[in-house]
Design a protein that fits this description.
Mean pLDDT: 79
Shape: elongated
Low-confidence stretches: 1-17, 28-34, 57-73, 250-255, 629-644, 689-696, 994-1009, 1030-1035, 1374-1381, 1441-1448
Strand order of the largest sheet: 1-2-3
Distance between the termini: 181 Å
Number of strands: 3
Helix content: 55-70%
Length: 1448
């Protein structure tokens, strides 16, 4: 105090007088003071103020007399050890006593004492001043002081105002943690402390400095992380609450307004610091980086979760977003156009993108779009921040794509309505930025530009003013934009009326000039360049190699030359010839088996798209390259080494993606990492952003031999493994229904044009070929993947299933389900596991959604396979359900390490939601579905024994499906319906891909693959229908037998015609029909005797099948195959056994055959040596009598044929003549050595009709020698025809009628047409001119019709050649030594033409009758022959005019 007095006295003395004492100064002041009321109170206040300002409390307490213990306790208030035994009440009592002795309020003294103690604590550690956190010792001392302060505050012995005044003086030395403790323990709030400070700028600077230090130290100090986190969170909450709350009282005082300004200033200062740090570039793990990362981490739900209302955080987030978007708007629009390709999501600083994602949490996508509109309309903006925000928005928000498109549409409408340049600029920048993120989140720029301006519906098409505005805008962009965008504008130009075409041409000229300055040529653009991206344009030769690889990939998956390649060969020939072809024809060692590149080259060569000289040079270079194979092999190793890095980066990105699965609901975090994965994926596969568009409408996958390039397979394995691991990790935290859309987003990224075929091919390898070997985690992951892929059905094309058989297209869910096979026991068990996992995941994922959504997520094929395999493997599921299980789907059971799959499948079967789904019609396992699936089973590898399989079939057919109503997929109790469906399914199966290789041998249709027992069930059911108690229910004769109804319906559905494809398809179908017929009771062919007399069985349906189909495809020339023939006659014997007059029934059937189906009779004659023993034996055993008359007549015809070849006299031919002729023809064919001339002499006494019919059969034999040379000897067939022709000419018998047969002919003509296949009848012109050298020279003169028939045959022969129907003849002739020079249709046509041109001048007048009519229909086939005929006919007519008339 003495020092204080001396100092003050010295300072108070005047410079010109002596120093006065303190008493003199006071005495003088007292004299000058005016006495008045309140003077004592004012004096007391002044004294207190003076003491407060200059008081050394420790010295004062030492001078004041009092108990030593109380003085000690006040000095040691901040020492917890010294004051451990002192209570707060004792300290309070001491302060009260001291205050009374000093004459000051106890609250003021207490506040000063506590403030002094806190300052001692903050400065006690001699550490650097740039700290904001207390150490452990300081924290312990502060706790003691605050405990006393709380006591003093509770007993009104503490002044917050005085305390704030004291701390204000030492603010810069006060640690931020001490301030926080004062705030949270309610000693004095931060708001009170800040409002007590008059200098706002100083307090903002202090808070900014300490908050930055806190953010830095929070990342460094691990032991104080919780305290630092709580401090920062509380401060941010207070600033947001005070800065962004809305007061309902407009008359509030100024202090809350000042606090709001201060809070906003601090938050703004922190944000500006972070943004400027990002702009200058941050090094990872630097202190500033850590501070920015920590501050951005405060923008999360944990920070503001304790607030009662979200209004303040929402306003704060909107304000922050505005600040970010408007921070330092120094970039011009031209800069944004030029640089925006570097502002994509993947290139934006991760801290900035994380800030955007955190801001998006509090604001809905609609609010974000609205806020962007408002900011862009009212502020100058930082385009880099705006466009990077747009990228983050479309990446992290699934709804953003449509909202951004709607926003752009509004901008365009506003722009063209008032020629608003700002709206136009914004629209184009936003679209280009969103398109940079790839087609999985936004359409490509090319697609958008074409959709917006490529039609009459575009905004630009309103008037000339809007057109001028558009092209003026595009022209202004030219100096700044990337070449890709100008290429888009040129290749997909806006639609412009013809009268304004100059606007477009001016722009195109300008853009091409700019491209030329940039050394970019539109003509040299690659075929698959990504016009939506803004990447640098690659060199043509570099792009050409990429185009070649992509063209090969498209060709490999479609089997066709890509459309882009064909178009380039025509419209972009400079690039195609100068760059693409040289890249495609790079010399290499050609593989033994042509690969996809070789196949593409061959296809282009055949299409004349490769110049012959270039192709020849390529072949020579490949031959030379074969000698340098070791060197080239080393190049391959180098290429593989180059690819390691992209795969490693992709694997690292996928591992980072897995870390986000700790909280899969954070869609923004997952989406951000998925954007990185997509970029790495494009690099690994060499893709651009164009991977989202499909050139073809279908994706092609070869399910029988799926193959992938090694790198493609590695990429697919990385993706599939990542999905499975992510799913398992996510299930460890939350069930599927609460995991958010991460899985759907992941799967969407797999649906690119280039990537989807790779993924599907790999899935085919895993599920179809390696399924039983997959682990449980793989089964769960791939099952979930299949469900999500099925949800992508609207966005992806159908899958083209390629195989040796005809291809078929399947929707994606059906294709994925088709990969689950049931052939073996292991495959069936895997199918059960996979279906159980997939359905359980779908039910669990969509548990809170409607049934319609649930049905759309599940594949009907998957549901049906699950029901089928469950019924088959688990007999418990075959009975009725006793009680449905109300528990959830067994997804959790499947995720256990020791999952019981069969128990889980039964649990799923009993689940109520699943049973409700089964009520939907699309999920019904119908009888047809069951048959199709059962036919896949291979009995030798079946898990069921033969007896178990028979039991299962009996239950399924007779107990389950037969009695079910048709609405539920059953048969309504009708056995015929069950048989009909079974036959239909059986035929479909035999025609399907799975039995394709077995169709050549009909006996092996179901022995190679498929469940043979199903056909046994058909045989049992057909026998029941024929003989069992259900026989009376058979359809009426008008309806026909169910089997023939199926055949007839299916044949009507097949394509008609005689082209190769239609014939092969029909032949394959009929091969299956024949196999089915031979396996069923033969009585089906003949039918049962009718009740009427005479008892004639009804063979109409079988006869119709023979005449219309089997005659053409299942025959040997003029006879059916042996098996069908024998089956028919066995049916005849069975029918006779049911008749009261067997002989009469047999005679009636065979008599009907002669008129309705004569080829059955000729078939019996051909196979008689093998047929007769069985007929004789069974007839004698059953009927004990001679053969019926008609069978005896067949025997006589056979005897006649043999006798004509023997040296004995020929036996008389039985009638009718065509039967005897057929028997003789077959006998001649079967004889080893035939002297046909001498044998024909025995027929001199026979009828002319027999010879004519024999010639017809010999013509059929001649054609057979061409079509089936292994069955008939060609030279022998020609000799037979020639001799019969000489015999006919010798006897002056006309045979031309055989070449004029029509369907309208009655009698013999109709019979002959039914005795030969239609292809043979159509090839009669070929047979006619094959015998040209044996024609009689006088035939033209002797027979008036000869010329007309010869011309008719010639014109038809030309037509056959033109339509390709002679190709089979020429192909066989080229392979057969005997037919060399005989089967060439071209040579035959030349000979015939020469023959006609020589013969026409010698023909008499009568030969030209009706010639004009013939030439009118077919004369155009050979104009020269037609002209010769017309000329000769005219000359003959002119000669008649000059002849003298015969009047008498």
């Amino acid at each position: 105090m003495s020092d204080l007095r001396t100092q003050d006295a010295a300072s108070g003395s005047s410079s010109g007088s002596r120093r006065r004492t303190w008493a003199e100064l006071l005495a003088g002041r007292v004299e000058r003071q005016l006495r008045g009321p309140g003077r004592g109170h004012r004096l007391q206040d002044s004294a207190v103020h003076l003491l407060r300002r200059h008081l050394n409390l420790d010295d004062l307490l030492l001078e004041v007399e009092g108990p030593a213990c109380k003085t000690l306790c006040l000095n040691q208030l901040g020492d917890p050890e010294a004051s451990a035994n002192l209570s707060s009440s004792f300290i309070g009592s001491a302060l009260r006593d001291q205050a009374s002795r000093l004459g000051v309020p106890v609250a003021v003294l207490s506040s000063q004492t506590v403030a002094s103690s806190i300052m001692q604590i903050c400065s006690s550690n001699g550490e650097p001043t740039h700290r904001v956190l207390l150490n452990a010792e300081q924290r312990k001392k502060l706790s003691s002081v605050l405990e006393v302060a709380q006591y003093l505050l509770a007993h009104s012995m503490f002044s917050r105002f005085s305390f704030c005044q004291e701390l204000r003086e030492v603010q810069n030395f006060l640690l931020l943690e001490a301030v926080w403790h004062l705030h949270v323990q309610n000693i004095v709030s931060l708001q009170e402390l800040l409002e007590s400070h008059a200098d706002t700028q100083a307090i903002v600077a202090w808070l900014f400095r300490d908050l930055c230090l806190l953010c830095e130290q929070m990342e460094v100090s691990t032991q104080d992380t919780d305290i630092a986190q709580a401090m920062l969170s509380d401060f941010v909450q207070l600033f947001v609450l005070r800065g962004f709350q809305k007061s309902s009282d407009p008359r509030r005082n100024m202090e809350p307004e000042r606090m709001a300004q201060l809070a906003i200033a601090v938050l703004r200062r922190m944000l500006i610091f972070a943004l400027e740090a990002l702009a200058t570039g941050l090094q990872d793990e630097s202190p500033v980086y850590k501070a920015v990362k920590c501050w951005f981490g405060m923008f999360c739900g944990h920070t503001f979760g304790r607030m009662m209302s979200t209004d303040c955080p929402k306003r704060f987030f909107s304000h922050t977003l505005t600040q970010v978007l408007t921070h330092k708007p120094v970039l011009k629009v031209s800069d944004a156009v030029r640089l925006q390709r570097d502002w994509s999501f993947a290139k934006t600083h991760p801290l900035l993108s994380s800030l955007y994602r955190r801001l998006f949490v509090m604001l809905s996508p609609e609010e974000l779009i609205g806020h962007l509109e408002e900011v862009l309309g009212t502020h100058e903006v930082n385009w880099q921040h705006v466009l990077s925000c747009v990228s983050t928005l479309v990446i992290c928000s699934p709804e953003a794509q449509q909202l951004v498109q709607d926003w752009v549409t509004r901008l365009l409408a506003r722009a063209f309505e008032s020629c608003d340049l700002d709206s136009m600029v914004t629209a184009f920048l936003v679209v280009r930025q969103a398109a940079l993120e790839g087609p999985s989140v936004f359409p490509s720029y090319a697609d958008w530009f074409q959709a917006s301006f490529g039609s009459t519906r575009g905004f630009h098409s309103g008037s000339k003013k809007t057109l001028v505005f558009l092209f003026k805008f595009l022209s202004d962009l030219v100096p700044f934009e990337a070449p890709r965008y100008m290429q888009v504008h040129i290749l997909y130009p806006p639609l412009v009326p013809s009268k304004y075409r100059s606007l477009l041409t001016d722009y195109v000229t300008l853009a091409k000039t700019r491209l030329a300055d940039l050394k970019v040529s539109v003509e040299n653009m690659g075929l698959y360049e990504d016009l939506s991206s803004a990447k640098d344009v690659t060199e043509p030769h570099s792009q050409a190699h990429q185009d070649v690889e992509k063209a090969i990939a498209v060709f490999e998956h479609t089997g066709k030359v890509p459309v882009a390649v064909m178009e380039a060969s025509i419209f972009r020939r400079p690039y195609y010839m100068s760059h693409f072809l040289p890249a495609l024809l790079t010399p290499r060692v050609l593989p033994r088996t042509p690969d996809s590149r070789a196949a593409l080259i061959e296809s282009l060569r055949r299409a004349d798209k490769i110049p012959p000289s270039l192709y020849s040079t390529y072949c020579q270079a490949c031959s030379s390259a074969a000698e340098k194979k070791p060197e080239n092999a080393a190049l391959g190793t180098k290429t593989e080494a180059i690819c390691v890095e992209p795969l490693g980066l992709l694997a690292a990105a996928l591992r980072e993606l897995r870390t986000t699965m700790t909280d899969p609901t954070q869609y923004d975090v997952f989406s951000a990492q998925m954007a990185v994965v997509s970029e790495r994926l494009s690099s690994a596969l060499g893709l651009g952003e164009e991977d989202g568009s499909f050139e073809e409408s279908q994706v092609q996958v070869n399910i029988f031999s799926p193959e992938l390039e090694p790198q493609d397979q590695q990429v697919a394995d990385l993706l599939l493994t990542s999905f499975c691991q992510n799913l398992i990790a996510a299930n460890g935290f939350t069930p599927p229904d609460r995991q958010g859309p991460w899985a759907a987003h992941f799967v969407t990224s797999l649906c690119g044009r280039r990537l989807l075929p790779i993924v599907l091919t790999r899935l085919c390898q895993l599920l179809r070929h390696q399924g039983p070997g997959l682990s449980a985690s793989h089964v769960l992951g791939l099952a979930a993947l299949v469900i999500h892929l099925g949800e992508c059905r609207p966005a992806v094309p159908e899958v083209h299933v390629a195989s040796p058989a005809p291809v078929k297209s399947l929707p994606l869910p059906e294709f994925l389900s088709s990969l689950l096979t049931l052939r073996t026991a292991e495959a069936s068990l895997f199918c059960l596991k996979f279906c159980t996992a997939a359905i359980s995941y779908s039910l669990c994922k969509s548990s809170s959604q409607s049934k319609d959504i649930l049905c759309s997520c599940l594949s009907p094929a998957l549901m049906k396979k699950f029901q089928f395999i469950l019924f088959r493997l688990l007999s418990e599921a075959r009975g009725p359900l006793s009680q449905e299980d109300t528990a959830g789907p067994p997804w959790k059971l499947l995720c256990l390490p020791s999952a019981d799959w069969q128990r889980a499948a039964l649990c799923l079967w009993k689940q109520r939601t699943f049973q409700e789904l089964l009520q939907e019609k699309e999920f019904h396992l119908t009888y047809r579905d069951w048959l199709q699936l059962e036919l896949e089973i291979q009995p030798e590898f079946d898990s069921l024994s033969d007896m178990e399989r028979w039991d299962f079939h009996q239950w399924a057919i007779h107990e389950h499906f037969l009695l079910k109503p048709s609405e539920a997929g059953g048969c309504d109790g009708d056995m015929q319906t069950a048989c009909t469906v079974l036959v239909d399914v059986l035929i479909d199966f035999c025609q399907s891909l799975r039995s394709y290789n077995c169709l050549e041998n009909s006996d092996l249709v179901l022995s190679c693959t498929g469940n043979r027992d199903i056909f046994s069930r058909l045989q049992e059911m057909a026998a029941d229908l024929e003989q069992g108690p259900v026989a009376p229910q058979r359809c009426s004769p008008s309806q026909g037998h169910f089997l023939f109804r199926v055949f007839r319906r299916r044949l009507q559905a097949l394509a008609s015609g005689w082209d190769v494809a239609a014939r092969l398809q029909r032949q394959q179908e009929l091969l299956v029909y024949r196999w089915i017929l031979l396996g069923l009771p033969p009585s089906i062919l003949v039918g049962s005797p009718q009740n009427k007399q005479p008892a004639t069985p009804d063979c109409t349906e079988f006869f119709h099948l023979v005449n219309s189909e089997l005659r053409n495809f299942c025959c040997h020339g003029s006879a059916l195959t042996h098996d069908i023939t024998v089956h028919f006659f066995r049916g005849l014997l069975n029918t006779c056994s049911q008749s009261r007059d067997p002989s009469l029934t047999a005679n009636l059937i065979l008599t009907t055959c002669q008129t309705e189906c004569p080829i059955v009779v000729t078939s019996a004659l051909l196979w008689w040596p093998r047929l007769e023993p069985e007929l004789h034996t069974r007839w004698r055993r059953c009927f004990q009598g001679p053969l019926p008359q008609e069978l005896q007549r067949l025997w006589e015809a056979q005897l006649f044929g043999k006798s004509c070849l023997s040296s004995d006299l020929a036996s008389p031919p039985p009638g009718p003549a065509w039967v005897s002729a057929a028997a003789l023809h077959f006998a001649i064919q079967q004889a080893e050595e035939t002297r046909i001339k001498s044998q024909l002499e025995k027929l001199n006494c026979q009828s002319e009709e027999l010879l004519v019919v024999l010639f017809f059969f010999s013509l059929m034999g001649l054609l057979s020698s061409h079509l089936t040379p292994h069955a008939v000897d060609f030279l022998k067939a020609v000799d037979i025809c020639a001799e019969i022709l000489r015999c006919l000419d010798k006897r002056k018998v006309s045979w031309l009628v055989l070449f004029q047969l029509t369907d309208t002919d009655g009698g013999l003509g109709q019979v002959l047409l039914r005795l030969a296949p239609d292809p043979y009848i159509r090839l009669l012109p070929f047979a006619f001119y094959s015998l040209l050298s044996y024609f009689d020279e006088d035939a033209f003169i002797r027979e008036d019709a000869f010329l007309r028939v010869a011309v008719d045959m010639y014109l038809k022969l030309i037509c056959l050649f033109v339509t390709g129907e002679t190709s089979a003849v020429s192909a066989l002739a080229g392979r057969s030594q005997e037919l060399q020079g005989q089967g060439d249709p071209v040579g035959l046509i030349i000979k015939a033409r020469h023959f006609l041109l020589q013969s026409i001048p010698r023909c008499p007048e009568k030969s030209f009758a009706n010639m004009a009519e013939l030439l009118a229909t077919s004369g155009h086939c050979d104009p020269e022959v037609s002209a010769a005929l017309l000329s000769r006919h005219q000359a003959v007519s002119d000669d008649d005019l000059y002849q003298e008339p015969h009047l008498f």
